[in-house]
Specification:
350 residues; alpha/beta; Rossmann fold; 7-stranded parallel beta sheet; 3-stranded mixed beta sheet; 12 strands; 43% helix
């Protein structure tokens, strides 16, 4: 049986990917490595936790000895690396954590893969999942392509840019078979509510202020998380070694428009008067170094592999709002910290 390691598989994107892989490839053992920090939630994976080809391992990619032992014990055939500190605001407040996890942790995984595979790379693959933020900020025109020069503007994006460069360096220096993808903003079910969309939805539920940076004119490209998971699977299976693929949703929106759209959908689904939630919008001091605009050109992955997003913006947002309203217990558990009890119950003695 082949063995595939997914790091960060209890997080937002990772849990959707792990669920897809476990169900799609029953003859592959999917090992989910996650440190279960604040954004890692095993409640995201209760529907697959008992399947025979799934296994969860708690551990920190910064622990070099642990990572080497893990690779030695399992003899993985591949790695899909999503584990990362990922919130820009947190990186501004505490940059060292991002350096350790995103840079040192990635190097530990690269070293373990290189050592265990011992230059016998046939059938092996190291897939590094990154972000469009490494490219910096766009003006009103143009989109990021795979050859756009890197210009990171925050500790988070700088740490991801560093890890991207290291992955490419291991490919060129040691011949490690790698592939990289850079994606736009994800949205959908199970996202930790520090991110814009679940934060706004949760605050609307409780009629709390809806914080919007500056005037809300910053532009992001939005990608439904399940579309992203399908793209990762396709790139892992069929992408070319050493290549980078940009994954985008082709859904550019100003932040304020995102917030107003969510207000409208929530008012309708909650049976509130139209426009009631918009009154909660509160403009706050802009984030330090806030990038103006991100936009992804996903032509390469479409032409090379045939991937394109399936979920359109309006449908995706309707589905997302409906999921959070139907899963208020999950959201309340995350925001209250009760989900930590689940970890203790399930994994205390493992």
């Amino acid at each position: 049986m082949k063995k595939l390691l997914v790091t960060g598989g209890a997080g937002f994107i990772g849990s959707h990917l792990v669920r897809l892989l476990v169900k799609k490839y029953p003859d592959t053992r999917i090992v989910n490595l996650d440190n279960l920090t604040y954004a890692g939630n095993l409640a995201n994976l209760t529907d697959i936790e008992s399947l025979p080809n799934y296994e969860f391992v708690k551990g920190d990619i910064v622990n070099e000895e642990f990572i080497m032992s893990l690779f030695d014990g399992y003899q993985f055939d591949g790695v899909i690396h999503l584990a990362a500190e990922s919130h820009v605001d947190r990186s501004i407040a505490s940059p060292k954590e991002f350096i350790m996890t995103n840079i040192v942790g990635t190097v530990n995984l690269l070293n373990a893969a290189r050592f265990i595979w011992k230059d016998n790379f046939e059938g092996k693959r190291f897939y590094h999942v990154s972000t469009d933020e490494v490219y910096g900020s766009l003006g009103d025109e143009g989109k990021f392509v795979e050859t756009t020069p890197y210009d990171p503007r925050s500790p988070y994006s700088a740490s991801k840019a560093s890890s991207d460069h290291l992955v490419r360096a291991y490919h060129h220096t040691y011949g490690l078979p790698v592939v990289i993808s850079n994606c736009s903003n994800n949205y959908g079910p199970n996202q930790f509510p520090e991110k814009l969309i679940p934060l706004i939805l949760n605050n609307i539920r409780h009629k709390k202020p809806l914080p919007v940076y500056g005037q809300g004119t910053n532009v992001r490209d939005w990608l439904y998380v399940e579309d992203h998971a399908k793209a990762i699977d396709l790139i892992y299976q069929k992408g070319a070694d050493g290549e980078t693929y940009n994954i985008g949703g082709n859904n550019e929106r100003q932040n304020i428009d995102i917030v107003k759209t969510l207000c409208s959908i929530m008012d309708r689904q909650l049976g509130r008067p139209d426009g009631e939630s918009e009154k909660l919008i509160t403009y706050v001091k802009d984030r330090a170094g806030h990038d103006l605009r991100y936009a992804i050109d996903a032509t390469k992955v479409y032409e090379a592999l045939g991937w394109q997003p399936e979920v359109q913006f309006n449908d995706g947002f309707e589905k997302t709002v409906a999921w959070y309203l139907e899963n208020e217990q999950w959201l309340d558990g995350v925001t209250s910290g009760n989900y930590l009890k689940y970890y203790e119950k399930m994994y205390r003695d493992r």
